[in-house]
Amino acid sequence: MKEEVLTKVCDISIIIPTYNAREYIIETLESIRKQTFTGKTEIICVDDCSEDNTVEIIKNYKDTTELTVKIIQQTKNQRQGAARNRGIEEAIGEYIFFLDSDDFLDEDTLEVMYKKAKIRDCDFVLCDWVYYYETDGEVYVNNDLFLFEEWLSKENCEKLYQAQTYFSVNKLYKRDFLLKNEIKFGEGYIYEDFEFYIDAVQKADLIGIVSNPFYKVRVNPNSTTKTDSTTTVHMNDFLVAIEKSLNKFNPRHKDSFYMVYKYFFNRAQIYSENRVPSRYKRKMIKRTVEILNNRSVNYYVPKNIVLHNRMYFQKRLIQNNKITAIMTVRKLQNKGTLNRYYLILSKIYKRLLINKLREKMRARAMMRIKNQSKNAPIKENTVLFLGFDYRYIGNSKYLFNYLRNNFSELNIKFVTVDSSVPTKYRIKPRSNEFWKALGESKIIITESWTPLAFFKKEDSLWVQLWHGTPYKRLFFDSHEKFISKFNRNHKRDKKRDISKWDYLLADSFGGKRKLKSAFSFPEDKILPLGYPRVQWLKDNQENNLLKSDIRKRLGISGNKKVILYTPTWRDYNYKNSNPNFDYLLDLKVLNAELGDEFAVVAKLHSMERTSIPVNNVIYPEDTIETQELLLISDILISDYSSIIFDILPLNMEFLLYVNDKDEFAYARGTYEDLDNLLEPFTHNNIGSILNHIKNKYSITKHPNYDFLRKEYSNMFDWDSNRKVAEMIESIVKKKVSI
After folding, report:
1. What is the per-residue pLDDT across 680-718, written as a single tens digit (0 to 9) for each?
2. Strand pairing category for 206-218 and 124-133
3. Which of 541, 498, 524, 718 is CA-nearest to residue 630?
């Protein structure tokens, strides 16, 4: 064993094996140059006897960049494994990152992963990944369960065996961890990652997980795994790789044998169908089964697994070498008929068939309508609002009203059942009229997630207004443990929705940075023009007649000051039959202590409202929108809600009541920079809140408040509605390209 611990000379060594990489190597290197990481890095390019001018390109790049670039040329082609091992030997960084020569990184990758690694001295840190296609851009397919965790320790590190793909890239390894444990890649064959991955996972004691898809896997038709499909090289190398991997395999977790065997067997099926001549298919499956069984036939198999794996492992087709039966199950699985045959045997099929036929008839009728809509020509002056989950509220409402009042030449529709939208503009969700409008509209405007069934046409343009600047971590910036626990495809499906967006609206430049990271969205497609809902607040700040009308509708009389309480929903209550409402402010105490000087208005979730009914506290009807409540309020009390950023342009007082910081951090988390900025305004007990209000303390002169206004609020001197409308107008008039 190599015991010596080398002295740290730089923070991160980035190892790039190259072979005929001239097409993409500059883009790969540029993604390193653009990193926000300020520590010291080195790039080690190990060339495996390229037959093109890859080395010359790297040398020229080295001469024109401030990056530290080392070029190592192998004397003999030994494939990527040997190149990566050579890189490990030459590396002087505290941490090592493997990057393929046609892949690239998000600019925040190294900064975020290095910071995570240092927090708890991880053996390695992984980030999420996304496929990148030249024609379609990013395509997110991942649904690995371990991505919902912050950290994995001891035997739980082996949850990584659940991964869809055993990547050695997308991870930042502590170099000493690799050296001390003699973790190396296989050499001289494809699929060299298997051996490395198996060993690294089983020897790790602590792994940090970053939920952002920072690593971009380019789908390259000329890569090693996409060529040589007319020979047996993929079969031979795959069998060598799994046999060498299993020779090292010594797991700690009871599920690990099943997870690894399932992965290797699934890969054997896929590769035998796509990467080797068809006449070798059975041979590859047979030999794979033999290798697995030679290692072990007695291992734990979980109960709740999908049907084909139940057949392979629970019914022991693999353990008993039933190759013909295995091939039959696979054939039925590929045809989509395995479940049907299984149900027939289970005598349940007839009853389900009737329901299935009914569903098919409905689906076919809808499909005909959708196909007609997809083929309909785009009408250039049409704008379709999908609303905030079909609701006539928020940014969608105010932008819609601005457009219909100022741009009569536009044909505007709003998808909702809300009768507040005039009939001539209103379309019922998922109706025939809706599908027709979706197919004909030039511009689609939405404010939240949209169903995947909503198709996007090539000539249409989608504008996502989103519904707030996030204080709580959002989407890829959070592990979203409780939501993802109930739907492991949650992020994969939502990323497909994101891929439809052409533009994303932000309320501020600080908000733009958060949304870029959260949605892994191109920075140049995020428009910091300000939210229409905030513009409405700015426009009506001095509208005393409107304020008086809103107060009257709420029953607030005289000169009472208004305190608005708007907590945000908690992820840890998601699908919880016994939700925990301990995070709520005690409105009974608040109302009693403040007396008649204040009117307390509480905008709560329906479940929250029923949990704490209090006399003399005003619970507004849903017909009164949050923006109207903000307009008449003197003090806002909230917690993790984006609502606090809406009121900053009004120079309004706010307080944050947070008594569940640890629970919330575990469930979703907040952005650290905003935590620090908001800390002076955050209280964890009602006594502190009351003291602040009774003594009439003001936070608006605090330097943090001023910084928040400048960075995270709509302080623009332009009309946000007008700015967004001008963009829409220019698209309709074809002044800009999509």
Report:
1. 999 999 999 999 999 999 999 999 999 999 999 999 989
2. parallel
3. 541
**Main-chain phi, psi angles of 10, to 5 degrees:** -145, 170
* Spatial CB neighbours of 390, under 8 Å, sequence gap ≥ 6: 415, 416, 417, 429
CB-neighbour burial class of residue 447 (10 A; exposed 0-12, middle 13-18, buried 19+): buried
Q: Which residue type, as a one-letter code, is found at position 660? A: D
Residue 42 DSSP SS3 = strand
Nearest one of 101, 4, 8 to 52, comparing CA atoms: 101
Q: How far apart are CA 191 and CA 195, in angstroms?
A: 8
Pairing of strands 151-153, 124-133: unpaired
Q: φ and ψ at 701, to 5 degrees? A: -95, -5
What top-level class would CATH report for the domain 10-227?
A: alpha beta
The kind and range of the H/E element at 139 are strand 137-139
Domain positions in the chain are: 10-227, 378-530, 535-715
CB 12 within 8 A of CB 114: yes
Q: 535-715 maps to which CATH number?
A: 3.40.50.12580
What Rg, from alpha-carbon coordinates, does the chain have? Answer: 29
Q: What angle do CA 354, 355, 359 make, to 5 degrees?
A: 120
Per-residue pLDDT of 65-105, as tens digits, reads 999 999 999 998 888 999 999 999 999 999 999 999 999 99
Q: CATH assignment of 378-530?
A: 3.40.50.11820
Residue 273 buriedness (CB in 10 A; 0-12 / 13-18 / 19+): middle
Candidates 669, 675, 680, 564; CA nearest to 618 is 564
Separation in Å, CA 132 to CA 139, 141, 220, 418, 512: 6, 11, 9, 40, 23
H runs (alpha helix) in 163-306: 175-180, 193-203, 233-248, 256-274, 281-295
Phi, psi of 577 (to 5 degrees): -70, -15
CA distance from start to end of the chain:
58
User: Is residue 1 very low, low, confident or very high in pLDDT (cuts 50, 70, 90)?
Assistant: very low
pLDDT band at 9 (very low <50, low <70, confident <90, very high): confident
Strands 171-174 and 93-98, bridge-based pairing: antiparallel
Angle, helices 394-406/720-732, rounded to nearest 10 degrees: 60
Return d(Cα 110, Cα 20) in angstroms, integer. Answer: 26
What the block records as the tokens of 418 is 């809300």
CB 583 within 8 A of CB 639: yes
According to DSSP, the residues that pair with 443 across neighbouring strands are 383, 461
- Is the dihedral angle over the CA atoms 475, 478, 483, 487 positive or is it negative? positive
Report the alpha-carbon distance of residue 613 to residue 587 in Å, rounded: 9
CA distance 297 to 168: 28
Same fold, 10-227 and 535-715: no
Maximal C-alpha separation, the chain: 88
Distance, in Å, from the CA atom of 318 to the CA atom of 62, rounded to the nearest integer, reads 52
Answer whether 267's CB lies under 8 Å from 315's CB: no
Which among 460, 406, 454 is positioned nearest to 430, based on CA atoms? 454
**Which class for 110: exposed (0-12), middle (13-18), buried (19 or more C-beta within 10 A)?**
buried
| Burial of 76: CB neighbours in 10 Å, binned 0-12, 13-18, 19+ | exposed
Task: Give the single-character DSSP code of 695.
Answer: T
